[in-house]
Specification:
Elements: H1 2-7, H2 10-17, H3 25-31, E1 38-41, H4 49-54, E2 59-63, H5 66-77, H6 81-84, E3 87-91, E4 103-108, H7 119-130, E5 133-144, E6 156-166, E7 169-180, E8 185-196, E9 199-211, H8 215-224, E10 227-233, E11 247-254
Parallel strand pairs: 1-2, 1-4, 2-3, 4-5
Antiparallel strand pairs: 5-11, 6-7, 7-8, 8-9, 10-11
């Protein structure tokens, strides 16, 4: 087990958990079809930036996790030049952006903005971002809703999430979650168990905390920080938002 622990890192588990999540990629390819320069806030290991770069879209990606960025740098080092040349990495907290460029588009993918748990963090991120946007630019927020995960409003027991085969290793992923209605904080524990011939060779649990926003309060937050909503959707197919939508896609622009 020790050998496995030396090579399996949190970015590997992140990629594993989200290995089947590609539904949002087509939305970004469509929204950024005319983009010259795009700012990704929370680039992580490059799940979104790689397919965008492959289409020729130039991405500046910000993240403050050196472990995630190391994984991304390793991927870029092994990628074709036409992809790696399109991705610029900045190790920075996006609540306190300080970059030289200004951008036509910016986006917080895959519930990244939901990781900002306090109003102070949220305001700081939005006000900091606004300094790096061109006039008429657009910001895309992919936000969680109470429909994003099954039974998000209830404390859920450990449930099986997925099983993935990698050679002779079976990886079982399970989740356990809780939601605090007073704070609107959703906590999820993601457990990973690696098995070879029915023997457990590696186990790890990752804790994730997100703040769930309601549409009205998020609109007030944007207005407070000098943005206006120009479009809102409830799916990656850009369908109308309603009470059963599994995500909330907001497109906003600075006033």
């Amino acid at each position: 087990m020790n050998n496995e622990q030396n090579v399996i890192r949190e970015p590997d588990l992140y990629d594993l958990f989200n290995s089947r999540d590609r539904d949002d990629i087509g939305m970004y390819l469509s929204l950024f079809s005319e983009a010259q320069n795009v700012l990704e806030l929370g680039i992580g290991t490059g799940r979104v930036s790689f397919p965008l770069a492959e289409r020729g879209i130039r991405i500046t990606g910000v993240d403050n996790s050196e472990e995630m960025l190391t994984s991304l740098r390793n991927k870029l080092a092994n990628a074709p030049e036409h992809i790696s040349s399109k991705v610029k990495i900045i190790n920075q907290d996006f609540c306190n952006l300080d970059i030289q460029d200004k951008f036509d588009f910016a986006f917080y993918p895959f519930c990244t903005f939901n990781y900002l748990l306090t109003i102070e963090q949220q305001i700081s991120a939005l006000e900091s971002l606004k300094k790096h946007l061109k006039k008429g630019s657009e910001v895309i927020f992919d936000l969680m809703t109470i429909q994003t995960f099954p039974n998000i409003l209830y404390n859920a027991n450990q449930t099986h999430y997925d099983s993935i085969l990698q050679g002779d290793i079976e990886i079982n992923i399970s989740t356990r979650s809780s939601f605090d209605q007073a704070s609107q904080l959703f906590t999820q524990y993601r457990s990973f168990e690696y098995n070879r011939q029915n023997d457990v060779i590696f186990k790890k649990q990752i804790k994730m905390i997100n703040r769930v926003f309601l549409l009205g309060e998020f609109q007030l937050l944007l207005e407070k920080c000098g943005y206006k909503i120009i479009k809102k959707y409830g799916s990656y197919d850009l369908l109308k938002f309603n009470s059963s939508s599994y995500c909330l896609i907001i497109i906003a622009t600075p006033k």
